[in-house]
Specification:
Radius of gyration: 18 Å
CATH architecture: 3-Layer(aba) Sandwich
Strand order of the largest sheet: 5-6-7-3-8-9
CATH topology: Rossmann fold
Strand content: 15-25%
Number of helices: 9
Order of helices and strands: EEEHEEHHHEHEHEEHHH
CATH superfamily: P-loop containing nucleotide triphosphate hydrolases
Structural class: alpha/beta
Helix content: 25-40%
Length: 257
């Protein structure tokens, strides 16, 4: 059995007068340590899928198993990093990154030490006592990554975590997240609208069609692109080839919508 198994997931959103099918017959699996991106046109259910994986609500039908457990029963398995950093402005950076550990009842001297060491490793040494307003957007997202990693999740869910950043900062953060997750052998799922980001960070790309969201096609990223940083990937010939292929598929899906 794979580390993550999604089987025949469908989901409806209900109002008093209508029902909307957001996802239909979604099935895929992920091996431990793999990095997958979910890509597709607006309204194809990517974020709905991520929310279900996070255990925020169950699917209408189908099943999900993460390391032999359901996401609803063991949210400690999962770390979630969003487009906004959602750091508490009245807490110091140190207090923010300790928050998940505190909520999980795992805050002790050892876990504090590990969290602060990670903060140092990602270039934020010396900001522990500062408040979020004192940091740049890129530094705040680094702090959000430190908060996510502090609880040592088995699965990281990344919901467009770089989209609010300027392009240069975005590229630097892509490299940092990629290298961090590889170093710690973490399994990750990224939701993005950016084809280049999906290619440069992923082992595989799951392309969704819309209305309702279905899996249209799964792309394997060429082996030569998987072992270099996202910044370096963009300079490879194989990057341009797969970019054009995915672009054409995505364009055809958007025309259908």
């Amino acid at each position: 059995m794979s580390f993550l198994e999604v089987k025949q997931v469908a989901h409806f959103y209900f109002t008093p007068s209508t029902s909307t099918k957001a996802l239909e017959d979604i099935s895929f699996s992920i091996e431990e340590g793999e990095f997958i991106s979910l890509l597709g046109p607006s309204g194809c259910g990517k974020t709905t899928m991520l929310s279900i994986l996070a255990g925020l609500f169950p699917p209408t039908s189908g099943s999900i198993m993460i390391d032999h457990e359901s996401p609803e029963t063991n949210s400690n398995l999962i770390g979630y990093m969003l487009q906004q950093d959602y750091l508490f402005p009245w807490k110091t950076i140190e207090e923010n990154i300790f928050l998940g550990l505190k909520l999980n009842g795992r805050l002790n001297e050892e876990t504090k030490k590990n969290a602060l060491l990670f903060l140092k490793q990602i270039g934020l040494e010396g900001v522990e006592k500062q408040f979020p307003r004192q940091l740049s957007g890129g530094m705040r997202q680094r702090a959000a990554l430190a908060r996510t990693m502090a609880v040592n999740p088995k699965l990281l869910l990344l919901d467009e975590p770089f989209s609010a950043l300027d392009y240069q900062t975005k590229l630097k953060l892509e490299d940092l997240v990629f290298e961090t997750l590889r170093a710690y052998k973490k399994t990750a799922i990224l939701v993005t609208h950016d084809i280049g980001e999906a290619i440069s960070m992923s082992d595989r790309i799951v392309l969704f069609s819309a209305k309702p969201g279905r899996i249209h096609r799964i792309f394997d990223v060429p082996e030569e692109l998987r072992h270099v940083t996202p910044f370096e990937v963009r300079g490879k010939e194989a990057y341009n080839d797969i970019f054009q292929t995915i672009w054409k598929e995505l364009e055809s899906l958007e025309e259908l919508n």
